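so my prof wants the structure for this chain in the tokens format not the other one, which i didnt know existed until like an hour ago. anyway here's the sequence
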Amino acid sequence: MISILTAGTGVVPCAGESVVRERPAEWKNLVQGGAFKDLILPMPVREGMTSDTWGGDNVKPRDIFNGIEDPEWSYWCGDPIKGDDGVYHLYTARWPENHRKGHFGYFDSEIVHTTALDPLGPYVFRSKLGEGHNPEIYKSKRGRYIVYSSNGRYFISKDLHGPWVRCTYDFHARERYVFPNYLNYSFASRKDGSFIAVSRRGWIWASPDGEEDWYNVSSESVYPHIDMAAAEDPVLWKDDIQYHIIVNDWKGRIAHYLRSKDGFHWKREPGEAYVPGLARYEDGTLNDWYKYERIRFLQDGYGRPTHVHFAVIDSTKYEDQPYDIHNSKLIVLPMRTSRLLDMLNKESITASTGEIRIKIKAEEGFDPHKDLNLESLRFGASDEVNYGRGSKLLRKENAGKDLVLVFSGKESGLTAENFAGKLLGRDSDGKLLFGWSALPATSMQVPLLSALSPKFEFVKEGLEAYVEVTNFGEVKSSKSVVKLKVGDELFAKGSVRPLKPFEKSTVRLVCKKPLAAGSQAEVAVLLESNGLPTESFSKKVQLPDSRL
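here's what i got, hopefully its the right format
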């Protein structure tokens, strides 16, 4: 269904640009903090509030010193990082506002380096890196700064101020899906210094060091129940507990939030990650930007998001023309930061667990002895606490500056499928409080075996297959099993020796069932470790002519 009007903007979307997505009925029962959007806070009112600027009435008055904007430039997509110098560095894309294609001048955008002394801005231009779009900055295993750009390019430097050298990624598709021009990638470092990335459509990639070489390791998208044609602008990040993804549905103007223990297997959380209408000030003033895209975060030393960055536009992209009142910019909003938690239980949490012991840590600006509304707290599986359920607090115990919270083991909802528990409640001022804790006996670093399609060869004894298997995980794999199937019929089986991270092995399999020479067959490669499936990859392969 086409949306008719964006509230407050007076903007009528072009046909096909926007649709209304139906929300699951149970989302109406989410408590505050159950949806990711609840963590995004109002902006402070600063001296930059004015109506004497570009844009429709829907985005006035506003703080023109928030984020980055300029009447002569259109800004879109930007990624922040705090330097060792205490300065906030933002790498963003821009193009002239008077570009003959209006907003769609972004095809000719350039990536620039800007800085600010305050995470909210204003960010000031410092230098130009070069042509490009969709920038994201990260630090590689070798300690060099990488600024990703679309079309498979990146800029590299030893210093945030440059100089920058343009390079090209080597994206190894490995017979898997690749979105054209390598758009909308987002990156996260792993504990061992290697990296993973998510592409626009939700395929996971891995790199030993985050620099040139990247390998597609997904057999399918990790986005569940999302309109794939409208999926874009994912952001991937890791904190001290888990991995996270937020992916935008540009057509439905709604974003989805997913979590993972290892970066390969993902769980979708309920509720909206973000929607239009978030840009509100502490005095209640609303800037009703038409679109919010290209979400990125400023993270602290624990990987926790402290500020969220959005690319916003006051009208539809088609209405933004050269020399008019419409334009785009980056805005920055503060976020509710998660609390630091430690699970003190040593055994797995089950239905028979009597007590769940959580240490909540003191940190600057937070004293758990004084700043908690104890009666409001719930702990357990996110599927429970997001809806106001979960385990209740039994008592508290002093632990120096920290505090131990003891919850009832009942009603936590935690099962073997959970890898993190969620704390949700309020502080002593009635404000939202939350945190995540890794669960005991849960391995957060795992091997990840991935295979290519088999190569067949006719020999005197019959048909043989050769399958290349690589471990893209962080730890050494155990001895594993590889199977080949055509339809439901198993026709080859063999073992894979233990593999170190990024080590590969070619497995020789003797086929028990004949396949016709010169024919094509849809062959499924199944990998199993410790009796559990790890990957199922199917591809149509061509069998050789037996006479060759």
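also thought this was worth mentioning. The chain is about 0% helix and 45% strand.
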